[in-house]
């Protein structure tokens, strides 16, 4: 005889209900109404059971709910690659049901973060193909880097570029779209498909019209899928877009559940909700699957105030942040990242000596140029050295601009950023760079003499050595660009 535990509704508030009964129920167990609407047990206060509904249904007092055999989770496997799913693993891309395979397994959404004994030192660079990031703000495999900025500052474009540039790098990309409009998600999928990036990407999406508990689960599902691939020894790029909206959803759930509000009406465990997710990212030992999860949580904010609760929380639990500004984007800078206010605390240890020295040289020059620019407002005449520094700054900023959906190989990035320190570019201006940048990249890729420098660039001991090699190649460059 089949026996099933049941409970009856005592009270309901929108998507939050309380049940009586279900004697052996546990947190994160699933329940279902007679009409098939599912919910998950979020807490068990006293003798009652608190359930958050995942399907929309009008709930009445004394309505019957039965306990399901399954827990809150989804089936994970290689079949997810190229697919778009909701947080419960149901396909939303119209490509039909997901076929189970031998490699598929069930993963619960709520998992403890792996301990320090499972992790290893982050010593390998995560390449984005974007010059400004890979050279000046490098990321390591297993790093957690916050992407922060105001509206229309190019954050989504940067994330799409990063995914597209992983083609051929054996990286699995997971994009969690948290409560975005359905049209935005469709556009993202179309761009990834057009650039053949969907084959190694899993999209986990909830639209803004869905119930709050389902939206709340989106990043948990993304982490569970990421952990599956990490345990296969794969490097994973995880994008959580965006956690600001996720925090608002959790605030709505908490206030409905009568949790005591704290700062900005967020509940007291708001920090924990994000920290225990991001702690699941990292670089792991081979005995624990190997592989890595590089996390890029995203948050949109008002640039006039950085001190609100969620941005400061996220800054404190990540290994740095990339600050995007719409004002820089409107000036033609792409990616529109403010170098002076962006930080990477882990990535520099993954760079070799030459890239480290080059990065330091450029940062010092940009800082010096900012000081000189301030002084130049009060002086009619500038020394030759000051003029050269300001000119080099302009050339470097032009070289750091990058068209959407393009990748620049790492050795070429170093060569481009060393060129302003050679006599070849001494008499050139920004317009020259704008006109000939792509020709220069092509020349250093295909021309026999220049390609030899490109090949050796990564093994050079210092940026001075590379600048010297480029100085000697000046006549060849002049000949090509005639």
UniProtKB/TrEMBL annotation:
UniProt keyword Ion transport present: yes
Compartment list: Membrane
Assigned GO CC terms: proton-transporting ATP synthase complex
Keywords: ATP synthesis, ATP-binding, CF(1), Hydrogen ion transport, Ion transport, Membrane, Nucleotide-binding, Transport
Chain ranges of the ATPase F1/V1/A1 complex alpha/beta subunit nucleotide-binding domain: 129-343
SUPFAM superfamilies, per database record: C-terminal domain of alpha and beta subunits of F1 ATP synthase, N-terminal domain of alpha and beta subunits of F1 ATP synthase, P-loop containing nucleoside triphosphate hydrolases
ATP synthase alpha subunit C-terminal domain segment(s): 353-471
Assembly, per entry: F-type ATPases have 2 components, CF(1) - the catalytic core - and CF(0) - the membrane proton channel. CF(1) has five subunits: alpha(3), beta(3), gamma(1), delta(1), epsilon(1). CF(0) has four main subunits: a(1), b(1), b'(1) and c(9-12).
Family the entry assigns: Belongs to the ATPase alpha/beta chains family.
UniProt name for this protein: F0F1 ATP synthase subunit alpha
Provenance organism: Candidatus Daviesbacteria bacterium RIFCSPHIGHO2_02_FULL_39_12
Upper classification of the organism: Bacteria, Candidatus Daviesiibacteriota
